Automatic annotation (TrEMBL):
<protein>
    <submittedName>
        <fullName>Aspartate/glutamate racemase family protein</fullName>
    </submittedName>
</protein>
Amino acid sequence: MKLRGGFTNYGETIGILMLDTRFPRPRGDIGNALSYDFPVRYKIVRGAHATRIMGDHPDPALLEPFIAAARELEADGVKAITTSCGFLAPFQKQLAAAVNIPVFTSSLIQAPLIHAMLPPGKVIGIFTERGHHMNEGHFRGVGWSPDEIPVQIQGMKPDAQFPATYILGREELDTDVCAPR
């Protein structure tokens, strides 16, 4: 068997573009490597704070840093890239065009597949932290429109634990409050 070199590290097939955050990431969160049964490679996009991503559209000044980070992950040998925030959907086409490996910015990319599996008249439910900010730009960014695929968006209450920690950047999380009751 012949092995081919070209990278410093091996076995990190999935690359994850991370927002520049400091909040806790329990097991199961994309930012906790223990969430996976395989090694992943992280790349933090400096300056990409949640407040710059989770408005009606991500800050356009962040596109170039995300492209640079995606290219670094590709150069490091990952075979696919995802992100830690689905509100990056408007960057999907540009990020995918910038590298030669698959890029998945948001779970919204799955809506056409889910829609194709559903009987006529069914609506796809989207649960997100900031439902009031999700808009046509997020859907079109990953290649579809709510005119074609019916969706119902539900956001969280503004005083919920999740936004206080994950959007406002609190550095502690009471996991008991987030547990099912």
